[in-house]
Design goal:
Residues 78-186 form the QsdR TetR regulatory C-terminal domain. It holds the Pfam family TetR_C_36. 72% of the residues lie in helices and 0% in strands. It is an all-alpha fold and 194 residues long. The chain is globular. The chain starts with 11 loop residues before the first helix and ends in a 5-residue tail after the last helix.
Length: 194
């Protein structure tokens, strides 16, 4: 009697997981190779994730969201100190991320388009997630920022990007000191004392 063969079909989550593993190892991601490796048609892959830019946005979001959840759970306190602490935690990890540094170094224009463009799904999700943290702190009465939360979130994300990608944007190597300056700026934007 032949043994039953159990096969599982790939899912969109499998595509993102596989692309994430490749990216973390510094390997190039090719949609045709992913399609073949996961035994799915190219049309199916495109229907699931769209083009490579959208896939990369999903890969970065999956990594960022996990990092964000860690920062939220590991940062004590509330109010301005809490928001600045979460901001510092996330961006300190990103500043020292070898895969991110490699990605930015290998193809700066593409990296900036995927990571910072206003059309990027990753960029817009980052702003939305940051806005949720701010709203939670406002709703709890811990902060009273002097500006619209969406605008504040946008400025916070742009401050982080200016530190993380300063080598591309203005020719200066990203440094911890610049991140601390960005944390001070976030504190001021939140209406906190320096």
């Amino acid at each position: 009697m032949a043994a039953d063969v159990i096969t599982t079909r790939a899912t969109p989550a499998d595509v993102i997981r596989r692309a994430r593993r490749l990216w973390l190892k510094g390997e190039r991601i090719h949609l045709a190779s992913l399609s073949e490796e996961l035994s799915i048609g190219r049309a199916t892959l495109f229907r699931w994730i769209g083009n490579k830019d959208l896939l990369m946005g999903e890969v970065f979001w999956s990594l960022y969201d996990s990092l964000r959840q860690d920062a939220i759970s590991q940062t004590p306190g509330q109010g301005v100190d809490y928001v600045v602490g979460v901001f510092r935690h996330i961006n300190s990890v990103l500043l020292h991320s070898e895969p991110l540094r490699r990605f930015v170094h290998d193809d700066p224009e593409y990296a900036l388009r995927i990571l910072t463009s206003s059309q990027s799904t990753f960029h817009s999700r980052t702003i939305e997630a940051n806005t949720r943290i701010l709203k939670e702190q406002v709703d709890a009465g811990f902060i009273h920022p002097p500006m619209n939360l969406e605008s504040l979130s946008y400025f916070m994300v742009r401050l982080a990007e200016s530190c993380l990608y300063s080598d591309i944007i203005c020719g200066r190597e990203p440094r911890d000191e610049e991140l601390e300056d960005a944390c001070t700026a976030v504190r001021i934007l939140l209406g906190g004392k320096v």
